[in-house]
Amino acid sequence: MSDFLQPVRDFLACSTPQAWIDAAIQDIPLLLQDHANCEKKAAGTAVNLLFRYNDKLPLQEQLAQLAREELLHYEQVMAIMSKRGIGYLPISPARYAAGMRQHVRTYEPQHLVDILIVGAFVEARSCERFAAIAPFLDDELKKFYTFLLKSEARHFEYYLSLAAHYSPEPIEERVTFFRQVEADLIMRPDTELRFHSGIPV
């Protein structure tokens, strides 16, 4: 698993703090609720891009598959919650996505490029957190989160390759910029526990 995850870990500037893992395993129902929200929002983001950029065939092909997989994951999380008697309750989103998206440029094609880079970081962090928390979970959830690793890693690669494809210039500078933004969000103290939240306080 370590070799498989290495590209994801190399992409991110920091690992998930142990303090987040310790807090997350103390509130599995909340974690599952937010995970379900994340999968649904990931599918929605992909579908929105499909409609907004319907003239871009590589994007259409890769994000259509991604959206299907995210909705399947949403159904799987919901099934686990139902099996465990965990009701689906509305919870506030983490500040993570908004914290990343506030830096997205507003003009094209740079807007699309930044959105795709942000998508790559969201998927990479999800993958890294699935791997980080899996050893501390019961057998069912450990198996589930381990199962999700490959698809999340593939989604990260989809977004990053699409960003490079549609950018008029090399994307390394923007990736470096968002890498620092992402790390700051992960390492900053956070009052709410969410799948992409920072260090619990």
TrEMBL record:
Molecular-function GO terms, alphabetical: tRNA 2-(methylsulfanyl)-N(6)-isopentenyladenosine(37) hydroxylase activity
UniProt GO BP: tRNA modification
Superkingdom as given in the UniProt entry: Bacteria
Alphabetical list of PANTHER family matching this protein: TRNA 2-(METHYLSULFANYL)-N(6)-ISOPENTENYLADENOSINE(37) HYDROXYLASE (PTHR42637:SF1), TRNA-(MS[2]IO[6]A)-HYDROXYLASE (PTHR42637)
Protein name: tRNA-(Ms[2]io[6]A)-hydroxylase
